[in-house]
Amino acid sequence: MVSQPLFPTLAPTIEWRDGDLLLLDQTRLPLEIVVEHVADAASVWRAIHELRVRGAPAIGVAAGYGLCVAMQDARELSLAQFRSELERRAAWLDTARPTAVNLSWSLKRMLRRARECNAQDSALLYDALVDEARRIHEEDIALCEGIGVHGMPLIRPGDGVLTHCNAGALATTGLGTATAPIYAAHRAGIAFKVFADETRPLLQSARLTAFELQQAGVDVTLIMDGAAASMMSQGLVDLIIVGTDRVAANGDFANKIGTLGLAIAARHYDIPFYVACPSSTLDFHTATGAQIEIEERRDTEVTHLAGQRIAPQGIKARNPAFDVTPHALVTGFITERGIVRAPFERSLKSLFAAEGNAA
């Protein structure tokens, strides 16, 4: 399946073409547009782990197709052997990144489809897996559209909208999550400004969000992470929309490091703070944010920039990729079915009780 790119100069984030998985390498943006052909399980794992494909929804889509790629060499096995290998390889792919729930959600859904499928041989079971991966892909595009529809009314003419990291089209296979209301408002002709935090240490907002919004013709200004509170104090920010990699049952959520500080500053300056949240990112099995595993990445991402050391040799560094924001700081969750407000534990479950992560 091929999703329609928002920008004619960009390839789709993820493409499934005649049994081949093609990923836009986001570590090369914005300087190069490189599409990688992912041909085996190890390559899928590395692409997710090394952030060549990133963003919770995109990781979920990549995981579905990736499991299909991982099983292509097993189609000649007996059905029992195929099922055994499927479970083993899915468990291994699930170790690529720990925080974004979409990875495990997608793989569990693929395994559930396999268990429920009455295919007579391994080749037919593989075809069923490809069909399920395509469904995950199609649903991701629709989820983004729904978030755009419900979030667009939050953006008024003249508003300053601040976003953090990349929860854009590049993090999904559609309009993005946090950017979906932005793109919808832009297409509706609403005049507003976007402030994009650079997002240290990997600069996803500088490299990706600012790039894609500029390509789409949105009025976007790149700012340092540390400048966000100052922009709020000057009255330049009227609305904050961020994405999320996992939402716990009580509404606590994990997102790119620095999100917690934004939420605290937003509360101080009385600025609405919204989280764009597709249902695939809800995790009702995790009671609160305290139980969310936070990925710690290499210290060299902090001590080096573009391959050059910027910190003293031998200095200790910490590099948590995400932080957890408590639900009390959230104004609302923008979902594909509407905006959810407190009390979140009750309202999220009432709207999404039948979803896979709530089972």
TrEMBL record:
The record marks C165 as: Transition state stabilizer. It catalyses: 5-(methylsulfanyl)-alpha-D-ribose 1-phosphate = 5-(methylsulfanyl)-D-ribulose 1-phosphate; 5-deoxy-alpha-D-ribose 1-phosphate = 5-deoxy-D-ribulose 1-phosphate. Pfam families: IF-2B. InterPro entries: IF-2B-related, IF-M1Pi, IF_2B-like_C, Initiation_fac_2B_a/b/d, M1Pi_N, NagB/RpiA_transferase-like. Keywords: Amino-acid biosynthesis, Isomerase, Methionine biosynthesis. The keyword Chaperone does not apply. It comes from Candidatus Burkholderia verschuerenii. This is Methylthioribose-1-phosphate isomerase. The gene is mtnA. One of its GO terms (biological process) is L-methionine salvage from methylthioadenosine. Its EC number is 5.3.1.23.
